[in-house]
Design goal:
Number of domains: 2
Radius of gyration: 24 Å
Largest sheet: 5 strands, parallel
Order of helices and strands: HHHEHEHHHHHHHHEHHEHEHHHH
Number of helices: 19
Strand content: 5-15%
Helix content: 40-55%
Number of strands: 5
Low-confidence stretches: none
Shape: elongated
Mean pLDDT: 91
Distance between the termini: 40 Å
CATH class of the largest domain: Alpha Beta
CATH architecture of the largest domain: 3-Layer(aba) Sandwich
Structural class: alpha/beta
């Protein structure tokens, strides 16, 4: 049920992917508004055509285009046949200071958590190998300095799946919250990353061998929000350490920084992965400047799924918001939330043109703050 009053609007227009349990109520298929680009269909086809494969795929798109929501759509479409382990580095790790080794730590956490929940039987030999790895000098140093006495004492006992799930959960949390552990990882784990990757792949093989027992055909790891790292860090992860990142023994989808699409090394990066898909914005204007009616209609449908149209004073207001959003859902949602708040501040029950204008000016000012005058070409911020 969409928002029935302005007080409810804020909750319906959060800049977050649609939750799986709310997907049927809120999702609007925007394929036709994206210029007919079949990136979603092709991505899905690559996975289902070889469920037991190990494709490494990049998934890019401008901020606010709906990447996370499309990944939820993909997950819903194929979850009958696949185990899908989806996690966000923005929530799990320090996105501003992330290293490629931390991606393997967080991946191991998700793998062991899945094994624990599904109570999958793991080969005792694998557990022995993991115990030996935990008792290496490098891991002992990390445990002593960053993970605490309870983990240290646990390693000395019998290594079980619940313990390993807890170990990697604490390892991931430490990597997110402690700046000192990053240097330790660089000096202790990175030189022996091949051993870490080997253990990760052995666990993936264990899981994949048991998938028929739970009615599944393949395993997919989706790592989200890597598109939010800066260019330098993105280059380090996707270019310098692409060899390590592509060694995981199952299908993997990595969200990818849009800026790297225009990097002089992108062709090399692309060659190191199996596929690179780009999700286009919803098109609201033609190159001529004329409105793109199909894209506008889709964005209007997205609004209607989340709030009652009578909450706007007239139909012109949401149309203006859509045109000035440029097809960016984040900006559209931001304007709607700000306009609703503005209306509530003045005790109005509907959004009028003054509320829209205030929301638009606020969004415009935010963009202006990020743009400098180009004195060399005599271009003003307003001209931009």
């Amino acid at each position: 049920m969409p928002a029935r009053n302005l007080e409810e609007v804020y909750d319906f227009f959060q800049n977050e992917p649609i939750e799986i349990d709310k997907f049927d109520d809120l999702y609007v298929n925007a394929d036709k508004g994206r210029g007919g680009k079949p990136s979603y269909n092709r991505l899905k086809q690559r996975l289902v055509s070889k469920p037991d494969g190990s494709l490494k795929m990049l998934f890019a798109g401008f901020r606010g285009c709906g990447k996370s929501t499309e990944l939820v759509r993909l997950q819903r479409a194929i979850e009958k046949d696949f185990v899908i382990l989806n996690f966000s580095v923005l929530k799990s790790l320090d996105i501003l200071n992330i290293s490629y080794t931390e991606l393997f730590i967080a991946t191991m956490e998700r793998l062991f958590d899945f094994v624990k929940k599904e109570q999958i039987e793991i080969d005792p030999l694998f557990l022995t190998n993991i115990k030996n790895w935990l008792n290496t000098r490098e891991i002992e140093e990390i445990v002593q300095r960053h993970l605490g006495a309870d983990i240290q004492s646990g390693i000395k006992g019998e290594v079980t799946i619940p313990f390993l799930a807890g170990f990697f959960a604490k390892f991931t949390a430490a990597a997110k919250s402690s700046s000192s552990i990053k240097e330790t990882l660089k000096t202790t784990v990175e030189p022996k990353i091949s051993e870490f990757i080997l253990n990760c792949n052995l666990l993936i093989d264990e899981i994949k061998s048991k998938l028929p027992d739970i009615g599944k055909k393949g395993l997919i790891i989706i790592i989200e929000d890597l598109d939010k790292v800066d260019v330098e860090r993105g280059e380090d992860i996707f270019y310098i350490h692409s060899t390590q990142l592509t060694q995981l023994g199952c299908h993997c989808i990595f969200t990818f920084p849009i800026a790297l699409l225009y990097h002089n090394r992108f062709k090399t990066i692309k060659n190191n992965y199996d596929e690179a898909f780009v999700l286009p914005m919803i098109k609201v204007s033609e190159k001529s400047g004329e409105p793109c009616n199909e894209g506008i209609r889709i964005m209007m449908d997205i609004i209607k799924q989340r709030m009652d149209p009578p909450l706007f004073e007239n139909r012109v207001i949401p149309n203006q918001m859509i045109r000035y959003s440029g097809g960016c859902l984040w900006d559209l949602f931001r304007m709607i939330k700000d306009a609703a708040d503005e209306a509530l501040d003045f005790e109005r029950a509907v959004i009028n043109s003054e509320d829209y204008d205030a929301a638009y000016r606020s969004l415009k000012a935010e963009y202006e703050f990020t743009i400098a005058e180009n004195k060399e070409k005599d271009i003003t911020v307003e001209d931009y």
